[in-house]
């Protein structure tokens, strides 16, 4: 398609002197007029024979010399959609040492066929000419190659005739940009209780290895408000490239401990399942996931419950009602559950079998590119084997991509998700380099311990040298928690089954260990221990908190207390599935919950807990308090409030009975979780203040501190080339309150 340019009016004396080029305009197939403009280029001036040289050019702020986008007014590539308008920008430069006085043509090709040409009259040396927002429609989805050719009719004698062409392959999605639809993904996704902002999602799309995000779209048991979740949010995030895992969190099993439960009568439970499906269908329609010939998949979140036969029958009937009704409505029905604790295989014999399952079986502590949907405990690979599986392989943990940190669960996929982005079939490569620690603690300015995947290490000189104190006969990678009350008395917790663990105790600084076994719950309880946390306040009194496996929408836990150094344990209560910290044998704290805002205190050793509220901020995140002694301590509360985000530091002088706001620390970036604060040389300060880039967990005693850093970044384009993500971790130590940092060296694993 050829287009004849129009002259743009210029001042008369410029027309006479020809001191500046004429501005021309190109015409699109839609008869839309787009102006070709010129500007001075930042290119080197060649020392060669006098001649023009024309070439494709990438101006500052542009991605490429030719840029397709699904929206106007941008010079960067975003998600492209077949069947909808594509806005194309291009730029060419004269980087020769003489102006091009002859009129020349610029041609653009799609997959080898010319789709546009423009005439340019004169281009001064060291100037470039460009066109923005020329419109064209690519009708078929998939990879398409755009090529720009400068002087495509070969009329200008140039100093270099070999740099006139530039091309690149871009991907156009099907679906016209509407988030509705279903695709099979073999990539990875994450779930987060509260939805992020659209800008945070854009950062993670650009910088993370994830392709899908779970959406808790509603239900009586949904924990986070997700007030920002609407059709506009879904459309915007879909246009970024994301697919979705829509999830409904309604009533739970009748024998569970949740407040919202369905009936124990199978017939009634079946009807309730159908009713929940109707509600979920309506919400999905309002979000734009269903409508105008599009359909979706919705997963039901059914958490673990005891293995009572009648309860299992009611749960199977409920899932049958849910699945059957969604299928009648033309949708795919999915169901989420703990692979063992929700008795997923029962669903395979239901009257209406879910089309896809999302199995929770945690085997890693964070993102793992090699995680798969197969070899899941309690669910044979023969079930849901035809691209019908998602697998939640890592529970709640922090990940940082592009400088944005989320607390998420991680999921491997070989099943159906909602959306229109089929690019989730491109491989992702993960590399992890450097030195990392799973946990670490300084007991004083010289002595402390550090846990890696290969060893439990002890230092007597602040981290210069190390001794291996791993209990004999155990796999260090299996250690879930370590605690020392002083330099001689320590404990290590190692799971031995889904419902049991061994607690190893030392009274000689790790030279010898004694094993004490602990059964957490009955094998048929439907529960599974995902993570354990030890906390000792003396050589005899300590606590063990257990996080039970569940979706990020829930937070369930158990608590055990010992009064004899870990030999025997008595069960207490715990309102959350999170770590605890005790300031005395009876006074303790736990924080977290699905939204991260819950703060609880006990004064009787965990028999009873009271929820505390220190702020009325709309979005806040609590952290465990830090106590200098039994009476004096600090409690940080992170407030997320745009450019007014901050950390409030509350102080107590009565053991936590009362708290007073003592200081406020401003934050540069709006947080997505609690911001770590540490006591450094007697002063509470943000963890990343004066710390190396990428600072994460840290431990301090006086002026001595250890910091773990991790910097993660992905390269490559999702869906076009293999995406390579690299996480570089390092350990650092400081003995001058963070003024200087030295890389830490550990013994070879």
Give a structural overview.
This protein is mainly β and 749 residues long. The protein has 4 domains: 12-173, Immunoglobulins (Immunoglobulin-like, Sandwich); 182-425, TIM Barrel; 430-442 and 680-749, no CATH class; 443-679, Methylamine Dehydrogenase, Chain H. 9% of the residues lie in helices and 41% in strands. The chain contains 5 helices and 48 strands. An 8-stranded mixed β-barrel has the order 13-14-15-16-17-18-19-20. Helix 2 runs parallel beside helix 3 and helix 4 (266-286) packs parallel to helix 5. The longest helix has 21 residues, at 266-286.
Provide the fold topology.
Blueprint: H1 12-17, E1 24-27, E2 33-40, E3 54-56, E4 66-69, E5 80-81, E6 85-94, E7 100-110, E8 113-123, E9 127-137, E10 142-150, E11 165-173, E12 182-185, E13 188-191, H2 198-207, E14 212-218, H3 231-240, E15 243-248, H4 266-286, E16 297-301, H5 309-328, E17 332-338, E18 356-364, E19 389-401, E20 404-418, E21 428-434, E22 439-442, E23 448-451, E24 456-459, E25 467-468, E26 481-484, E27 490-497, E28 500-506, E29 514-519, E30 529-536, E31 542-548, E32 557-562, E33 570-572, E34 580-582, E35 588-592, E36 598-602, E37 610-611, E38 620-622, E39 626-627, E40 633-639, E41 646-652, E42 660-666, E43 677-680, E44 683-686, E45 695-701, E46 704-715, E47 723-734, E48 742-743
Parallel strand pairs: 5-11, 13-14, 14-15, 15-16, 16-17, 17-18, 18-19, 21-47
Antiparallel strand pairs: 1-2, 2-9, 3-6, 4-6, 6-9, 7-8, 7-10, 10-11, 12-20, 13-20, 19-20, 22-23, 23-24, 24-25, 26-27, 27-28, 28-29, 30-31, 31-32, 32-33, 34-35, 35-36, 36-37, 38-40, 39-40, 40-41, 41-42, 43-44, 45-46, 46-47, 47-48
């Amino acid at each position: 398609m050829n287009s004849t340019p129009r002259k743009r009016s210029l001042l008369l004396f410029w027309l006479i002197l020809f001191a500046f080029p004429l501005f021309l305009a190109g015409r699109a197939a839609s008869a839309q007029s787009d102006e070709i403009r010129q500007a001075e280029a930042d290119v080197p001036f060649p020392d060669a024979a006098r001649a023009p040289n024309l070439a494709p050019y990438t101006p500052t702020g542009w991605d490429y010399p030719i840029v397709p986008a699904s929206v106007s007014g941008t010079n960067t590539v975003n998600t492209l959609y077949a069947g909808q308008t594509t806005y194309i920008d291009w730029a060419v430069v004269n980087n020769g040492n003489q102006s091009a006085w002859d009129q020349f043509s610029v041609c653009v090709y799609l997959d080898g066929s010319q789709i546009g040409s423009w005439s340019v009259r004169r281009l001064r040396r060291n100037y470039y000419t460009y066109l923005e927002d020329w419109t064209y429609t690519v009708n078929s989805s998939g990879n398409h190659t755009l090529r720009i050719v400068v002087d495509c009719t070969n009329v200008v004698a140039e100093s270099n005739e070999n740099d006139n062409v530039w091309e690149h392959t871009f991907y156009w999605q099907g679906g016209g940009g509407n988030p509705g639809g279903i695709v099979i993904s073999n990539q990875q996704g994450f779930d987060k209780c509260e939805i992020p902002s659209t800008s945070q999602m854009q950062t993670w799309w650009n910088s993370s290895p994830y392709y899908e995000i779970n959406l808790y779209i509603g239900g009586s048991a949904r924990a986070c408000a997700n007030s920002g979740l609407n059709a506009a949010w879904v459309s915007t995030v879909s246009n970024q490239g994301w697919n979705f895992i829509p999830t409904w969190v309604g009533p739970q099993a009748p024998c569970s401990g949740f407040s919202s439960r369905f009936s124990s009568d199978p017939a009634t439970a079946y009807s309730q399942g159908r009713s929940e499906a109707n509600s979920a269908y309506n919400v999905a329609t309002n979000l734009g996931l269903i409508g105008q010939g599009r359909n979706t998949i919705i997963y039901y979140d059914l958490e673990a419950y005891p293995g009572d036969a009648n309860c299992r029958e009611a749960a199977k009937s409920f899932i049958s009602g849910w699945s059957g009704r969604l299928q009648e409505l033309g949708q795919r029905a999915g169901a989420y559950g703990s692979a063992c604790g929700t008795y997923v295989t029962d669903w395979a014999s239901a009257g209406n079998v879910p089309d896809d399952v999302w199995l929770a079986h945690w085997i890693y502590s964070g993102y793992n590119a090699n995680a798969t949907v197969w070899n899941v405990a309690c669910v044979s690979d023969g079930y849901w084997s035809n691209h019908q599986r998602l697998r939640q392989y890592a529970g709640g943990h922090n990940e940082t991509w592009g400088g944005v940190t989320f607390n998420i669960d991680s999921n491997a996929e070989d099943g159906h998700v909602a959306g229109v982005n089929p690019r989730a079939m491109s491989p992702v490569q993960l590399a992890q380099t450097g030195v990392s620690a799973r946990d670490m603690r300084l007991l004083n300015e010289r002595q402390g311990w550090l846990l890696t995947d290969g060893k439990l290490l002890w230092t007597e000189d602040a981290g210069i040298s190390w001794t291996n104190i791993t209990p004999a006969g155990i796999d260090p990678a299996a250690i879930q928690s370590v605690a020392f009350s002083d330099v001689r008395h320590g404990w290590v917790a190692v799971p031995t089954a889904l419902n049991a663990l061994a607690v190893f105790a030392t009274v000689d600084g790790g030279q010898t260990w004694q094993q004490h076994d602990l059964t957490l719950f009955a094998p048929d309880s439907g529960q599974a221990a995902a993570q354990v946390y030890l906390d000792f306040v003396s050589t005899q009194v300590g606590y063990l908190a257990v996080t039970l496996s569940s979706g990020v929408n829930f937070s369930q836990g158990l608590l055990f207390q010992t009064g004899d150094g870990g030999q025997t344990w008595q069960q207490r209560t715990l309102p959350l599935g999170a770590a605890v910290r005790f300031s005395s044998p009876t006074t303790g704290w736990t924080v977290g919950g699905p939204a991260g805002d819950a703060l609880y205190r006990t004064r009787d050793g965990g028999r009873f807990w009271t929820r505390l509220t220190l702020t009325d901020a709309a979005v806040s995140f609590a952290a465990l308090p830090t106590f200098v002694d039994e009476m004096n301590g600090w409690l940080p509360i992170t407030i997320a409030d745009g450019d007014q985000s901050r950390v409030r530091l509350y102080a107590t002088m009565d053991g936590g009975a009362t708290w007073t706001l003592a200081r406020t620390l401003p934050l540069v970036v709006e947080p997505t979780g609690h911001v770590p604060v540490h006591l450094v040389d007697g002063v509470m300060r943000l963890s990343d203040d004066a710390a190396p880039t990428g600072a994460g967990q840290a431990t301090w005693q006086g002026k001595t501190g250890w910091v773990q850093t991790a910097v993660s970044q992905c390269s490559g384009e999702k869906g076009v080339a293999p995406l390579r993500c690299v996480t570089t971790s390092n350990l650092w130590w400081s003995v001058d309150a963070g003024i200087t940092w030295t890389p830490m060296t550990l013994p070879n694993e």
